[in-house]
Amino acid sequence: MTDAPGRAVLATSNGTGMGHLARQAAIALALNASLEPIVFSLSQAVHVVDRHGLRAEYCPSHHRNWMPHPTWHEYLRQRLNALLAETQATVFVFDGVAPYLGLLRARSDHPDVAFVWVRRGMWRPGANLRALAARPFFDAVIEPGDLASAADRGATAKFTDATRVAPISVLEGQPLLPRAEAAAALGLDPDRPTALITLGAGAINDTETPALAAIQAFLSTDDWQVAVIRAPLSRAGLDAAEAARVHELVDVYPLARYLSAFDAAVSAAGYNAVHELLPAGIPTVLVPNAATATDDQLGRARHLADLGLALCADEDLPESVAAAVRRLLHPTVRAALAEACGDLPRPTGASEAAELVGGLHTGFAAHRPSLNERFRVVDLAARAAAMRTLGPAGTTLVRRTLGRLPVAGPSKPLVVRPVVTDRLASEVLRGDRPVEHLLPGSSPAYRTRRLAIAHDVYRWPPHDH
Questions:
Q1: 3-state secondary structure of 344
Q2: In CATH, which superfamily holds the domain spanning 175-346?
Q3: Residue 357 region, left (φ>0) first, then alpha (ψ -120 to 50), else beta?
Q4: Angle between helices 210-219 and 318-328 (to 10 degrees)
Q5: pTM score, whole prediction
Q6: 241 Cβ partners below 8 Å, 6+ apart?
Q7: Those residues with Cβ within 8 angstroms of residue 394's Cβ, 6 or more apart along the chain or in another chain
Q8: Dihedrals φ, ψ of 6, to 5°?
Q9: Which of 26, 151, 207, 435 has minimal Cβ neighbours within 10 Å of its Cβ?
């Protein structure tokens, strides 16, 4: 036990959006007074946390296919071991739906570090059940609150292992800019009613997408302007006056700061979007993404619509989206939604989670593995050894026999020298060479250790200096 200042590593999975990163950023900002937060992320979008003044390190996910999949799990273990040793972190917090094998093995290597799983609820019924076997490895589970939690029918809904907090959102630590200032920053006219569309646009003359159905419904009026993120966006088929009313928002983060610029929104029903837009009082059409692997966006959207907090439309029926937007264009409908959302409390889950993490820093003695976890540790070690022995081809064959997806990635180590840098530059992270990103301000010993790990997983050409 210690009362000395310390550090916490806040890790995120790769994910398909900004949800994991934004939640961890919110917790990190709430932690700053008691613990130095270090963000560790598999997401190529990790560079955005620079804007919060947070130190962060990027690690390529297995989806990047830079190394054989069995190798990646051991690589992740070594990366986490090196980072925990360098930072002397007392708490490790993981936000993701499925803790990785390499992460769980790193947990076993550090019994003196408290491991926390930030595990969002609202899983699709029957989804991701195998991930729940990781529960014994964590000293605490934090469940971010969900405005639709009463409709949660997923596997975690019946568990009592989690400490439930209020919704976690960057909105908690990001005061809204005044409308005129927010609109000016985004290049919008503050005197026009403005709609935000966050569904991904495509080409505006392609009426088969829900985003474009929404855009055209707003443009059917003379006064509304539309802001679109997740472009590229083509204005083909629009006259000059219409095209001038569509604005692309590029690399805007955190969007929550600018929400006062908008009078309406059409959004997917992901956790982040819902817990930013609705508490900010933005009248919203939710278009749930039915293709998500774990997140029950359909259940969330329908329940919030039943509560009168949002409208709901069908992703597969663009006309359903257009019809919902036409309803939203009525001032009385928007006023009713805004009034209902006005009764929602501001999210405070980040502060509550930070308090729990801080308590583990000062009050955690050591991890005491249960008998179940001890068996799992042996199983994980055996699986890792088996994957190394079988290699990618053999592992794929076994997985197919068990009815699982084949392993991704190359069949042998790449002959490549990775980019070694301590800069979080988006164009580098998304480039055509592997990136070994070093935590800014880390020690020479850490750099040496990291280069040794990289040499183990890549075959650097001997002539490449």
A1: coil
A2: Glycogen Phosphorylase B; (3.40.50.2000)
A3: alpha
A4: 30
A5: 0.90
A6: none
A7: none
A8: -150, -170
A9: 207
